[in-house]
Amino acid sequence: MNAPARHESYVLEDGEKSVELTEDTKIPNAATIKIVKQDHTLGNMLRAQLLAMPQILFAGYKVPHPLHPYFIIKIQTDGTITPQEILEQACTKLIATMSNLETKFKREFSYKDVEAGGVTAAAGEDPYGTAGGAGTGAWGRGRDYLDF
Amino acid sequence: MQAQEDVEPTVRIREVKKDRVNFVLGNVDLAFANSLRRVMMADIPTVAIDMVEIETNTTVLPDEFIAHRLGMIPLVSANCDEAIRYTRDCICLAGCSFCSMMLELKVACDDDNTMEVTSAHLEVVPFPEEEGSQDPGEELSKRGEWFGHPVGKNDPNVPPVLITKIRKGQELKIRCIAKKAAKEHAKFSPCSAISFEYDPYNKLRHTTWWYETNVEDEWPLSENAKEEEAPRDDEPFDFNAKPNKFYFEVETDGSLGPQEVVMKVRLRPACCS
Ligand SMILES: [Zn+2]
């Protein structure tokens, strides 16, 4: 009866800020960033991306409690760049990798499609009942999934 | 620090089948590959039965048992990004045809044989429209013919999902509401399994192979070992080495095709899920 709405653990509420940055008062060039409604999926990959950048002295993240839908990430840089800037760079880098990967997946799938004479067509017409122009069936016709 | 970061990621699809795709991902970080796995597993929305109204249940199974089983049945969710809204984003008060699907299950047994109630008995019924709700949404036109139906209902070669067995005189009368969601419950996951492997020879020593007498006999190499070079017996441990090649097999339950699952992966901001 008092249960919170189930989507509250992964959808921002109206006006809720997703990122909150607190500068460290004792350590130079360090900050703690709280990212809400995100979990290990983003936290760990962000941490790894930060650690691969040369200006980073420290990067670590934690999900303080499994029932609290946020994680915090602590960053210290060598002073040539602020923690905020390097975090932005890391995110940009990850987004670039993602879209690069998306392009490659798209290309690979289209090759496979040609090889099999159209995977979707070969697997018995319309395996998932997606006739009507929507869904997997349309992949074989060279349409982008964003075109739907 | 390795300058590996400027290398572009690589993908090689080894096999695509109706319900699975097998691919090798290269030149990415372990954390990145794992995030990809986590997103395919938990963050891709599908449609599943979420509310069940039981009018009659004289079967041997209690109501909640059946309600749970109904929820687990995969429903065709192709293109559900556009074909259905989240209930929380919808303007309706208690569900409408733009944010929900209605399914009915009405079975009674009146002969002497045991009868199997399966997902094939689930029928999609049109949503009773409230008066004056002339919603201009275009969701309905984006749906495929079988959208929201139990997977395999249109294919006689796919065995349906068994819900319960009934005998003479027993009856089941149920109305279900299916909704779109992700993450809230495992039933919304489009994947029935994702296998994820790297470093088949355990050169990186990320794991310890426990054995009784002989490691080689008790830990047979996986198929993926053919993709990599076997370590020499006298090879020293390289403690700076990082995993670089990841072997995936994504198997779906049929609610989405494997290609749709992989292509729907993107960074999903919490503001629009
Ligand atoms: Zn609605």
From TrEMBL, chain A:
Tell me yes or no: is Metal-binding among this UniProt entry's keywords.
no
- What top-level branch of life does the organism fall under? Eukaryota
Task: Tell me one GO biological process term.
Answer: transcription by RNA polymerase II
Which Gene3D superfamilies does the record match to this protein? Answer: RNA polymerase, RBP11-like subunit
Nucleus as a keyword? yes
Alphabetically list the UniProt keywords: DNA-directed RNA polymerase, Nucleus, Transcription
Q: Which InterPro entries match?
A: RBP11, RBP11-like, RBP11-like_dimer, Rpo11-like
Please give the GO cellular component terms listed in this UniProt entry.
Answer: RNA polymerase II, core complex
Q: Which GO terms describe its molecular function?
A: DNA-directed RNA polymerase activity; protein dimerization activity
Q: Which family does it belong to?
A: Belongs to the archaeal Rpo11/eukaryotic RPB11/RPC19 RNA polymerase subunit family.
- Name-wise, this protein is DNA-directed RNA polymerase RBP11-like dimerisation domain-containing protein
Q: Which species does this protein come from?
A: Hypholoma sublateritium (strain FD-334 SS-4)
Organism classification, top ranks? Eukaryota, Fungi, Dikarya, Basidiomycota, Agaricomycotina
Automatic annotation (TrEMBL), chain B:
Q: Which GO terms describe its cellular component?
A: RNA polymerase II, core complex
Q: Which residues cross the membrane?
A: none
Q: Name one GO biological process term.
A: transcription by RNA polymerase II
Hydrolase among keywords: no
Q: Which residues form the DNA-directed RNA polymerase RpoA/D/Rpb3-type domain?
A: 20-273
Which is an annotated Pfam family here?
RNA_pol_A_bac
Q: Does the UniProt entry include the keyword Transcription?
A: yes
Q: Which PANTHER family does its entry note? A: DNA-DIRECTED RNA POLYMERASE, DNA-DIRECTED RNA POLYMERASE II SUBUNIT RPB3
Name it: DNA-directed RNA polymerase RpoA/D/Rpb3-type domain-containing protein
Source species, please? Hypholoma sublateritium (strain FD-334 SS-4)
